[in-house]
Amino acid sequence: MAAETPVVDTRFHTGAVETHCAYCALQCGMTLTVEGDHSSVEVTPRDFPTNRGGLCQKGWTAAELLQSPRRLTAPLMRDSRGEALREVSWDTALDAVADRIRAVQTTHGDDAVAVFGGGGLTNEKAYQLGKFARVALRTSNIDYNGRYCMSSAAAASNRAFGIDRGLPFPLPDLAQTGAVLLMGGNVAETMPPFMQYLNAVRDAGGSVIVADPRRTATAEQATLHLQPLPGTDLALALGLLHIAVADGHVDRDYITARTTGFDDVWRVATQWWPERAERVTGVPVAAQRATVRALAEGRAGRGAVILTARGAEQHSKGTDTVTALINLGLALGLPGRPHSGYGCITGQGNGQGGREHGQKADQLPGYRKIDDPAAREHVARVWGVDPDALPGPGRSAYELIESLGTDGGPRMLLVHGSNLVVSSPRGGRVAERLAALDLLVVCDLFLSETAALADIVLPVTQWAEEDGTMTNLEGRVIRRRAAVPPPAGVRTELEVMADLAARLGRPGGFSTDPRTVFEELRRASAGGVADYSGITWERIEAEDGVFWPCPSVDAPGQARLFTDGTFPTPDGRARFVAVDHRAAGEDIDDDHPIYLTTGRILQQYQSGAQTRHVEALRSTAAEPYLEIHPDLAAWHGLRDGDRVRIVSRRGEALAKARLTASIRSDTVFMPFHWGGEQAVNRVTNAALDPTSRMPEFKVCAVRLQRVDNQGSLPATEPSGTVIAGQA
Ligand SMILES: Nc1nc2c(c(=O)[nH]1)N[C@H]1C(S)=C(S)[C@@H](COP(=O)(O)OP(=O)(O)OC[C@H]3O[C@@H](n4cnc5c(=O)[nH]c(N)nc54)[C@H](O)[C@@H]3O)O[C@H]1N2
Ligand SMILES: Nc1nc2c(c(=O)[nH]1)N[C@H]1C(S)=C(S)[C@@H](COP(=O)(O)OP(=O)(O)OC[C@H]3O[C@@H](n4cnc5c(=O)[nH]c(N)nc54)[C@H](O)[C@@H]3O)O[C@H]1N2
Ligand code: SF4
Ligand SMILES: [Mo]
User: Fold this and answer.
1) Which residue among 121, 190, 221 has the greatest number of ligand 1 atoms within 8 angstroms of its CB, and so is best to mutate?
2) Residue (of 665, 684, 666, 670) closest to 594 by Cα position
3) How confident is the model at residue 508 (pLDDT cuts 50, 70, 90)?
4) Cα separation values, 455 from 402, 451, 489, 718, Å
5) 657 neighbors 727 (Cβ within 8 angstroms)
6) At a CB cut-off of 8 Å and minimum separation 6, what does 240 contact?
7) With contact defined as beta carbons under 8 Å apart, do 237 and 312 qualify?
8) Where do the H-state alpha helices sit in 301-334?
9) Is the beta carbon of 694 within 6 A of some atom in ligand 2?
10) 524-to-102, 126, 148, 516, 548 alpha-carbon distances in Å
11) Where is the 4Fe-4S Mo/W bis-MGD-type domain positioned along the sequence (predicted)?
């Protein structure tokens, strides 16, 4: 089966290849040592500025992804739902996809074909996917999983600073600061090598303050742990600003010289006296005061930094929460000072670059807005098309999913780099919408839960099988290098897009060479906020990565933002934006009396589609648990290890109870790395942030039921799916 010879890059480096990890935004530097026949690949950490020789367990074991027997190596197809997927040739699969695109668009219009991308794709693939959607498919309906990730922080940063880059400085600067307030991040599990920078602050006598409803491994190592109720960070931020003003810590000169809008912000914060903030958040007044004092002392010395991660951001008020924290930072005069400012810890490997080059519904390359006529003109010229032919803004990720198969909604979906049936909120509804499609096409490495639902599955190259660039959490553009050839039968997504565009007879030029695509990306991004035009692959290699914005090949990229005292806004000033606290999308009641929050554990990555195939990770984290306070457990008659059903107004999930006094007694926590009945997203709430369209992954109301049946949870992986044609 699948007899054609794949088009593979033959320029594979042999021996030791310097590259970066397969997974998260820290993009730890590692060397892959490849045996001559590519039969074994060894990982060793490199001394790169983000990891300085450190790796987490996922990084150490990442090479297992390259040799997994469960890797997809041939296109799969079925003619009707209910039939098993069978192996087919690339020509059969691509002809079928192109035929259906044509048929669906003829009947239902161009927008009836939709695309869902991913923040793990290289810059080249993300850029090409945005272009493919607008030029080859002519659809406005493209969005991606970054909408679930950093969209709230992105919206807030753009609103305040006119630019959205994860960190405003290289990560090692963080170690030099005097105080860090980390709101809703558990980096000890999500980016372990990051901890060295926080611990350096603490060990030098500075303050590290972590706000999390759980006393996480990160909070354990902090100097102060604030333990707010999920969904109340906005009230906490307002309370902190109130104290900053009342106790005389704000920087009046900075506010006058560099910002606008403080008075409106203060009018709201006057209402948030510390006792009121304590009542809403549960954070004692003394701890609030200590937090503000620590930030003010840090500023007076080496500096102070406010960081947010998903705990504060993944809410229906995530944008306003981040805004309130930026307001606090501006009032203290932090952005632009040495080792100071606001930063968002981005998430996926290319979470930063993935949101700059056009796979977002409202965006064109270079972080341009798709409804800006000048932006359309510029990008259309690079693409060789008429600006009027470019579609306008499309639907955001979850709204796109909700619209699938509805009247006027898309009839066909192409997925590139997301296991969205596991990772989207309100999973039951998501599965229903996917089932209503005429055709679901998934490009993946593995038969993920989403791929298992597809009509056509296309096996694509991964990580160490391809060349390209990624943009890490610092805004540093780095090189991903091909170390091993892909298995026979696998193609790159650049090839898939080129093949489909050719079959559709659509213009624009879709190169299959990542470097050629990067050269085009440079031109397309030139003059945009995220300007990559001065970045070349050679510079990246020579300079340990290049920071954007980088508009000139003759000048360094801008590693540190705002240091000249101005901001990339029309008047050069940062903008305070007045926001007030509001309740979460849903509150507890008699039927659903407990708060549920969700997140990550060390050993698993995202939907688990990759890490559940790595034996060392799978064996140490085989199934989800529900973190629950012993008092709450006693109330439910639950003992450690008992099976428990988590029930919300939308659905239910299964986990094993893990009793721990480290979590608030009104809140339970469950990681989201598993599918089927073990998917916590069957329970979560799809309430969206009105600005960023971020779903509320981090708080909803549930009740718990003890399940009598003990032992392991039922297996949920699609590994049992029998594929016709495979032994
Ligand atoms: N091991 C591992 N590492 C990863 C990933 C992974 O899946 N696994 N994914 C990567 C990606 S894409 C991302 S986005 C990052 C995410 O990195 P993090 O943001 O660090 O990860 P989370 O576990 O989602 O959330 C962090 C913390 O928020 C807390 N929290 C929950 N609700 C609230 C709240 O209302 N307020 C506050 N203040 N805190 C709250 C949770 O208890 C949790 O400890 O991790 C990256 N790294
Ligand atoms: N309850 C809850 N839900 C959440 C979150 C939460 O905190 N709580 N966090 C949200 C966040 S921050 C994120 S980022 C999302 C992530 O959730 P997903 O979007 O599901 O991310 P992954 O599980 O990483 O899925 C990536 C898929 O792409 C495949 N893949 C890897 N590389 C490539 C490639 O180059 N090309 C292609 N085509 N495929 C590739 C992988 O095998 C995998 O199947 O989950 C969100 N969902
Ligand atoms: S912290 Fe992130 S980039 Fe580093 S080894 Fe772990 S998963 Fe890979
Ligand atoms: Mo993420």
Assistant:
1) 190
2) 666
3) confident
4) 19, 8, 18, 15
5) no
6) 277, 288, 291, 292, 328
7) no
8) 310-313, 318-331
9) no
10) 28, 13, 26, 13, 14
11) 14-70
Give the bridge partners for 92, in sequence order. Answer: none
CA distance 650 to 672: 16
Ligand 3: residues whose CB is within 6 Å? 21, 23-24, 26-28, 51, 55-56, 58-59, 191-193
Ligand nearest to the CA of 492: 2
Q: Which of 636, 697, 645, 685 has its CA nearest to residue 665?
A: 636
What CA–CA distance (Å, rounded) separates 560 from 341?
Answer: 10
Binning the chain into helix, strand and coil, the percentages to the nearest 5 are 35, 20, 45
C-beta separation of 504 from 102 below 8 A: yes
Whether residue 509 has pLDDT greater than 60 = yes
Which ligand 1 atom is at minimum distance from the Cα of 214? 42
Question: How would you write 489-555 as a 3-class SS string?
Answer: CCECHHHHHHHHHHHHCCCCCCCCCHHHHHHHHHHHHCCCCCCCCCCCHHHHHHCCCEECCCCCCCC
Residue nearest to atom 2 of ligand 3 (CA): 24
DSSP state of 486: P
CA 646 – CA 678 distance, rounded (Å): 10
pLDDT digits (tens, 9 = 90+) for 280-326: 999 999 999 999 999 999 999 999 999 999 999 999 999 999 999 99
Q: Which amino acid is at 453?
A: L
Q: Residue 357, SS3?
A: coil
**Averaged pLDDT, 641-653:** 97
Give backbone dihedrals phi and psi of 689, rounded to 5 degrees, phi first.
-65, 130
Q: Is the CB of 335 under 6 A from ligand 1?
A: no
Number of residues that make up the chain: 727
**Cβ contacts of residue 381 below 8 Å, gap of 6+?**
387
The residue assigned the tokens 């500075």 is 206
Whole-prediction pTM? 0.96
Output Rg (C-alpha) for the chain, integer angstroms: 24
Answer yes or no: are the C-beta atoms of 269 and 356 closer than 8 Å.
no
- Reply yes or no: is the peptide bond before residue 549 cis, omega within 30 of 0: yes
CA-to-CA distance for 720 and 698, rounded, in angstroms?
31
Residue bearing the CA closest to ligand 1, atom 29? 311
Decide: residue 248, CB within 10 A, 0-12 exposed, 13-18 middle, 19+ buried: exposed
Which residues are close to ligand 4, an ion, with C-beta < 5 A?
149, 347
Burial 682-705 (b: 16+ CB within 10 A, else e): bbbbbbbbebbbbbbbbbbbbbbe
**Domains of the chain, CATH where assigned:** 88-149+356-547 (3.40.50.740), 151-345 (3.40.228.10), 594-706 (2.40.40.20)
